[in-house]
Amino acid sequence: MTTSHAEPVNGKLPHEPEKATLEGRNKLIGFWLFLGGETVLFGTLFATFLALRGQTNEGPTANELFHLPLVAAATFILLVSSLTSVFAIQAMHRGKRNALALWLGITVVLGLGFLGLEIYEFYEYVKHKEFGMTTSAFSSAFYTLVGFHGAHVAFGIVWIGIIIGQLFKKGLTVVTAPKVYVSAMYWHFIDVVWVFIFTVVYLLGKVG
């Protein structure tokens, strides 16, 4: 099906409405290219962190600094949010707008929970352990990498929130469906990046 109309054909959406139009398919291709650039950017930040993680300038080391239970809780929340975004896409493929909006809303709430824990973590480091952005090369690399990911999470929350509003205003159509699908792809991407951060920054920091 290659129709470019916003309304479902015969009142019913195709099985994969995100790919039902040429515009929708082009959005998916363009977004994959965008994710390629983002992967290179995060790869550069990871490489920088690995090069500088031992440069503590007599400040706190990773082993002294990190509190794994807090970070593990944030990781669990973000991984669950990835699952709820999968449920959202499944609801979209069934044509269930309200269920789709509900799962997207839960994803947003979980994303806010993750951000809240991350902000609290940063506050604890700065307030009680004197670990600021300019404390050392290690701290600069840490806040740049983890903070940059947090900014991506915040952007995703705003983006998905706007899409929820569009779903109620314009409905679930072959125009709004690609937006939902692309936002879910983005959310999975930042979840995958966080798994690498949790492993490379926190786990290796504690054992190293």
Automatic annotation (TrEMBL):
Transmembrane found in the keyword field: yes
Subcellular location: Cell membrane
Entry keyword annotation includes Transmembrane helix: yes
Pfam families, alphabetized: COX3
GO molecular function: cytochrome-c oxidase activity
GO cellular component: plasma membrane
Membrane topology, from the record: Multi-pass membrane protein
Record-annotated membrane-spanning stretches: 29-53, 65-88, 100-120, 140-164, 185-205
Example of a GO biological process term: aerobic electron transport chain
Stretches assigned to the Heme-copper oxidase subunit III family profile domain: 29-206
Keywords from the UniProt entry: Cell membrane, Membrane, Transmembrane, Transmembrane helix
Family per record: Belongs to the cytochrome c oxidase subunit 3 family.
Protein name, per record: Cytochrome (Ubi)quinol oxidase subunit III
Annotated organism of origin: Paenibacillus barcinonensis
